[in-house]
Design brief:
Length: 469
């Protein structure tokens, strides 16, 4: 891996400046790699998951990879333009000029997760390639068929000095994180991110972390309950809840809890009238995660929660020899239960009651700052209050997850849910170095500013002028 990094960095330095034509060519090849092989990627995804909806894979991994690459192609000229900046008075009047040039950083490391193993490789590459960088990508060992396909196709569409795909388990991942990249993007669990930060710190590598956390849904009293619960179910059951932005728990007014639960059950039963043979419903990624979710459900039940299993076709999941799991709605949860302590990452939805909207806000603020927050309701004052009183990576109002697909909105977390952001122009900036350039006018500015010894009246005037602001 170090040899690949060294070769990529040497090729990068030899190429400078990286032309916009070269960047466009790499973006187009990235589009072709995914679009021309979409069927193979979807087949690999369903093999890795045990079953994954073909249409969902096309939506969330194929189209959602191609769209940001197209977006970068469309806006590259504007993003790459130097930005003029004002200079101190009176230097601007005297001919001084200042601007920012956006240069590529060099070699970017990307550590991708398993839940969207195509999209969370390609979406960052839109900004990486638009900014003029090379990339090394560590794919997830949990999706080995997708990883092998990337390794095969990457070598066909790109020289290894442009983009290289690295496969392997935790030891490879650890060594990858320790490489002296010019920037490192990690998408994954908060616990692993702590190790990534430690590894990157030894080489002072700047890091962007896209993590997760317990993203809450606040259903206001003014919400359309049928619409709100249907949209929550869509977000919760897509990819079987294995989404960093999935609604993790739902907060509803105490006197509306029954209506909310009935709405969730009705929506899940309508959208997925059966599950085991349903091609639209995805399986849990592996046995370990399936057992983890099962254990957490058992833990909640043992500690007094009511567990509602939404199984409209009354199917036998235990005897199905598969890893599909129905939606589990959990009532009467306490903070002692694992489902209220850890990010769930599966089709389990705790429902919590609140008396006032401030109680709901306090519930959110007692926990680590989440990657996302969702609010439903037509009360504009309440919505503003929720936005003002919570700190979260991003927000979708009157739906869930959708802010991630808005390419010109920065995507990222805050605190334990992440640091930094990418997507669209923000991604271009993340993977670029903003180099400040100042051009001095011909006149003797040092003399005018009183910078030349011996210091005297001109110096004192310059100090007084600056102190006034």
């Amino acid at each position: 891996m170090r040899d690949i990094l060294d070769r990529q960095r040497s090729a990068f330095m030899a190429e400078l400046p990286v032309s916009l034509a070269t960047r466009r060519d790499r973006l187009r090849r990235a589009i072709e790699m995914i679009a021309d092989n979409s069927g193979r990627f979807c087949a690999a995804l369903t093999d890795d998951f045990g079953h994954r909806s073909h249409e969902q894979s096309m939506l969330t991994d194929i189209a959602a990879s191609v769209a940001p690459l197209h977006h970068a192609l469309k806006h590259l000229d504007r993003w790459a333009k130097p930005e003029k900046k004002p200079v101190l008075f009176p230097l601007g009047l005297l001919g001084g000029r200042g601007w920012i040039e956006y240069q590529p950083k060099g070699v970017i490391g990307v550590i991708a997760p398993w839940n969207f193993p195509v999209n969370l490789v390609m979406s960052p590459l839109a900004g990486v390639l638009a900014a003029g960088n090379r990339a090394m990508i560590k794919t997830s060992e949990y999706t080995p068929r997708v990883a092998a396909l990337f390794e095969e196709l990457g070598a066909r569409y790109f020289d290894s000095e442009e983009i290289a795909f690295i496969t392997g388990g935790p030891e490879v991942g650890k060594a990858f994180a320790e490489l002296p990249f010019d920037h490192l993007l990690f998408t994954g669990a908060t616990g692993i991110a702590r190790h990534i930060l430690h590894a990157a710190a030894d080489n002072l590598v700047p890091v962007t972390l896209e993590l997760g956390g317990k993203s809450p849904v606040i259903v206001g009293r003014s919400a359309d309950m049928r619409q709100a619960t249907e949209r929550v179910v869509i977000g919760k059951m897509m990819n079987a809840g294995q989404i960093c932005l999935a609604p993790d728990y739902l907060l509803v007014a105490a006197d509306q809890e029954g209506a909310a639960i009935e709405g969730l059950k009705a929506a899940a039963s309508t959208l997925y009238p059966s599950l085991i043979a349903n091609p639209d419903y995805t399986a849990i990624i592996n046995d370990r995660h399936h057992q983890r979710l099962t254990d957490w459900i058992d833990d909640a039940r043992a500690k007094g929660a009511e567990v509602i299993v939404v199984n409209p076709a009354d199917e036998d999941f235990a005897g199905s020899n598969g890893r599909k799991m129905p939606l589990h709605i959990i009532r009467n949860t306490t903070n002692a239960m694992t489902v209220m302590q850890e990010e769930i990452f599966g089709p389990i939805l705790p429902v919590r009651r609140y008396d006032t909207i401030d109680d709901a806000i306090a519930e959110v603020n007692r926990r680590d700052r989440p990657l996302a927050l969702y609010h439903f309701g037509s009360d504009a004052a309440e919505r503003r209050h929720v936005l003002d009183r919570t700190i979260t990576g991003g927000v979708t109002l009157d739906d869930v997850v959708f802010h991630v697909s808005q390419e010109e909105l920065p995507f990222g977390g805050i605190g334990p849910s992440g640091m930094g952001a990418y997507h669209g122009e923000v991604g271009f900036r993340t993977f670029s170095h903003a180099k400040s350039v100042y051009k001095q006018p011909r006149i003797d500015v040092a003399r005018l500013a009183g910078l030349k010894p011996p210091y005297g009246a001109a110096t004192r005037k310059s100090i007084a002028r600056q102190m006034k602001g």
